[in-house]
Amino acid sequence: MYNGGKILLGIFVFLALATYPFYNNIGKANARPEPSTDTPAIQKLAQKKCIEPEAFMKSEHMQLLNQWRDAAVRDGNRIYVAGDGQRYDISLQNTCMKCHSNKKEFCDSCHNYAGVSPYCWDCHLAPKEGK
Amino acid sequence: MSIDRRDFLKMIGASAVFALGGMGVVDGIVKDNVEAEQFRPEPGALLAKQWAMVIDMRKFKTEGDYKRIISACNNIHNIPDFSDSKHEVKWIWTDTFEHAFPEQEQGYAPESLKEMPIPLLCNHCENPPCVRVCPTKATFKRKDGLVMQDMHRCIGCRFCMAACPYGSRSFNWTDPRPHIKKENPDYPTRMRGVVEKCTFCVERLAEGKMPACVEASNGAMMFGDLSDPNSEIRKVLESNYTIRRKSELGTGPNIYYIIGGADNAREGAKRE
Ligand code: SF4
Ligand code: SF4
Ligand code: SF4
């Protein structure tokens, strides 16, 4: 084999580099995002619950927001009747964000962790936050 | 795969039943999550078959009368103010009578009439060319006659701008946010690369309110349902001579203008 040593060294260097991220993270538990629901509006709620059950909101809020968008913009239906019969104004800015006024600790904490950057905020105004 | 709330609840329900192995739970789950209609209009919403507007030029006397209606719209809807006119974004604006109504060729009309500033906005056409050309159906006509634009869907191709014979649409060449004087936190802004125009204040109609410009006009602008023979707007149209912009194009514009008599025309040039 010509230049066998160099080739082997090359393969070794390549493998070392390619697998570096995995070795580097071994044993380090990635901190789970902890979206904070500690906002003045939520503190004031008698019953601290979202418009739908938490598990549903966690996994399906994006679908719900899509349905909201279509209902409000396309059909002019701006009231959402939740599973428990409660009615809510369909509005990201004026319903969701009035409670979740801490976009950085709430929305961003999971979105950053998951590496997604939804474009909601290109148009919808985020609540003014101190920091 | 996307699932809606109903499917999700069913799934949760099914797994709960499975886990608990008892039929007693079924009742509880089904009862707790009965689906009525999930989406509905606001109870006090103003409804119509075809919204339309009458603008009474006799009641526009001073510069302030124009400014008031324009800034009412601009402030509520987060309209940016670009100093460079090439970037201008406008929902309601003014132009001279001569430019607004080029087909009205009254050869010897007084200069004051030709120069009279006319408030202009989207005509929410009955047969809107902007809707016909929009490749994504971002622009569409609602059941109540409003020509709406779904900003989430607009790809910024500007076909609608080319199709609209009234110049009612503006394109966001750059991020508009830095140019908004004072943000209204209750209304969204737009982003770079989308087209926008007057919405007939759809968000206010849903709450039972009149459009902002109409409210600020002190009676110089009227708004109502064209299909209702008893509406105020129909009464005004029956008792006044009105004109519309370029109606010969077949677009069916829904903004009607009362220009008024000679007195009004003579006064016209003093405004603005
Ligand atoms: S005025 Fe222009 S933008 Fe408005 S509905 Fe008519 S064609 Fe479309
Ligand atoms: S610019 Fe947007 S609204 Fe206009 S035609 Fe293209 S996609 Fe439709
Ligand atoms: S109807 Fe509403 S959106 Fe249209 S110009 Fe008047 S204030 Fe602006």
Automatic annotation (TrEMBL), chain A:
**Source species, domain of life:** Bacteria
Q: Which NCBIfam families match?
A: cytoc_DsrJ
Please report the name of this protein according to its UniProt entry.
Answer: Menaquinol oxidoreductase
Q: Which organism is it from?
A: Candidatus Aquicultor secundus
Traced from the root, the source organism's taxonomic lineage reads:
Bacteria, Bacillati, Actinomycetota, Candidatus Aquicultoria, Candidatus Aquicultorales
From TrEMBL, chain B:
Alphabetized CDD domains for the sequence: PsrB
| GO terms assigned for molecular function | 4 iron, 4 sulfur cluster binding; metal ion binding
Q: Does the keyword 4Fe-4S apply?
A: yes
InterPro entries registered for this protein in UniProt = 4Fe4S_Fe-S-bd (IPR017896), 4Fe4S_Fe_S_CS (IPR017900), DsrO-like (IPR054822), ET_IronSulfur_Cluster-Binding (IPR050954), TAT_signal (IPR006311)
Cited Pfam families: Fer4_11
The record's listing under PROSITE patterns reads:
4FE4S_FER_1, 4FE4S_FER_2, TAT
Alphabetically ordered keywords of this record: 4Fe-4S, Iron, Iron-sulfur, Metal-binding
Please state every residue range assigned to the domain named 4Fe-4S ferredoxin-type: 145-174
Gene3D superfamilies the UniProt entry points to: 3.30.70.20
Asked if the Swiss-Prot or TrEMBL record annotates the protein with the keyword Nuclease, the reply is no
PANTHER family xref list? PROTEIN NRFC (PTHR43177), PROTEIN NRFC HOMOLOG (PTHR43177:SF3)
List the protein's name. Answer: 4Fe-4S ferredoxin
